[in-house]
Write a structure and sequence with these properties.
This protein has 405 residues and is an alpha/beta fold. It has one domain (9-404): Glycosidases (TIM Barrel, Alpha-Beta Barrel), CATH 3.20.20.80. It contains 16 helices and 8 strands. Strands 1-2-3-4-5-6-7-8 form an 8-stranded parallel beta barrel, surrounded by 7 helices. α2 runs parallel beside α15, α5 (131-146) runs parallel beside α7 and α7 (180-204) packs parallel to α11.
Length: 405
């Protein structure tokens, strides 16, 4: 993300439960993937090593590569491994991580939820009626601990994927497939949780930058509906006019994402999803949270995924888990996602969460610059990199430095 007065920010994606290590084993924190790891449905994370034990090295390499920001995760499961019992040593360690970022001249953007929550919450946490308030309590604690070191926040990363991958495609725990009711309920709770978290952060940091975002999908109800619900009030839409406004937004989105985006699969899914998820009625709790909020908006920056439009990954089809690496190396998806969201009403931040090499990074940077040149308000680009890519970039940081100017 970026602040006023800066050009495009470029950052590395570091940390999170994929990189830190030290989860789901004896004497370590556990998150909701622990049962899948035991069953062999997900690879076990290393007990030690990785980013959790080499912050300074990873952050210094990011700075040497020409980046000026970094997106890190502060993991709920590590900070609160038992219900109501915070681990102050873990909190202090994350404080040191943020200090290291500043020492290397990098502005940290902190993600508070990325596909994982403490195991003691259970695998169906986002179906619980109290899940938005419980998540908000975690956000309140995180802001209290870290607000002096960070002003850029991502409440929930890939909000729509948290529900779709858990209950529609079965790619994430608990692994249910085609459970439309659970998908809708989880989306409503996730969106409500973001609204409450936005309010909480703004109470402590009025000038803080608060973001969430979706994996870009060419099906309105699974993607832009969530953003439009967050921003309708800011756009001057009265609550009783929201239904008609969302219908117009749906038509415009379908026009922009028609044709090549999603192809035949999207054309089949759109009418089915439209029937199953009747706009704001399906997100009644989130709509109430938006219009009852003390804030006149519930989003400062929209994060769009660089892995755009891969509808196959959302479906419970055999072998889809192997498609994501291929999809992330396709050209054009970043610029397409930016163009599809150019009328969101807030600046965009592009985030690539599938690790890529230097060649793909350069191509992605060119796509971001092309979108900016065409008038899309892209404020930042973050990318997860393959092992060794930061070192190779450090030898010639011209690609990143050029993109920032």
């Amino acid at each position: 993300m970026a602040t006023a007065g800066h050009g495009l920010r470029a950052g590395a994606v570091l940390g999170g439960f994929e990189h830190e290590g030290g989860y789901n084993m004896a004497g370590t924190p556990a998150h909701n993937w622990c049962w899948w790891e035991i069953e062999g449905r997900s690879p076990r994370r290393p007990a030690s090593g990785g980013f959790w034990e080499d912050w300074d090295g990873a952050v210094s390499r990011a700075a040497a590569a020409g980046f000026d920001t970094v997106r890190v995760s502060v993991e709920w499961a590590r900070c609160e491994p038992l219900d109501g019992e915070p681990d102050l040593h873990a909190v202090a360690a994350y404080c040191r991580l943020l200090d290291v970022c500043h020492q290397h001249g990098l502005q940290p953007a902190v993600t508070l939820h990325r596909f994982a929550h403490p195991a003691w919450m259970g695998v169906d946490f986002w179906l619980r009626p109290d899940s938005p308030e419980r998540f908000c309590a975690w956000v309140e604690a995180a802001v209290e601990h870290f607000a002096g070191r960070v002003h850029q926040w991502v409440t929930i990363d890939q909000l729509n994927a948290c529900a779709v991958f858990s209950y529609l495609s079965g790619r994430h725990p608990p692994g249910r497939r085609l459970d439309v009711g659970a998908t809708i309920r989880a989306l409503d709770h996730l969106l409500t949780a973001h609204v409450l978290a936005y309010e909480t952060i703004k109470e402590r940091q009025p000038h803080g930058i608060v973001a969430t975002g979706n994996r870009h999908l060419p099906v309105y109800e699974l993607d832009r509906l969530l953003v439009d619900v967050l921003l309708g009030r800011r756009a001057g839409v009265a609550r009783h006019d929201l239904h008609d406004w969302l219908a117009d937004r749906r038509s415009a989105y379908a026009d922009r994402c028609g044709g090549e985006d999603g192809g035949r699969v999207a054309r089949l899914l759109r009418p089915l999803v439209h029937t199953a998820i009747p706009a704001e009625q399906a997100l009644a709790r989130a709509v109430s949270a938006v219009y009852d909020s003390s804030c006149d908006r519930s989003l400062d920056v929209l994060v769009v995924s660089a892995e755009a439009g891969d509808l196959f990954r959302t479906l419970p089809l055999p072998g889809n888990g192997d498609r994501v690496a291929w999809w992330s190396d396709r050209g054009g998806q970043i610029e397409h996602a930016c163009q599809a969201n150019r009328d969101a009403g807030v600046p965009l931040a592009v985030s690539g969460d599938v690790a890529v090499g230097v060649r793909s990074l350069r191509r992605n940077l060119d796509e971001v610059k092309s979108a900016v040149s065409s008038g899309v308000d892209v404020m930042a680009y973050f990318q997860r990199l393959r092992p060794g890519a930061l070192e190779r970039l450090g030898e010639d940081a011209s690609a990143v430095l050029t993109a920032r100017t």
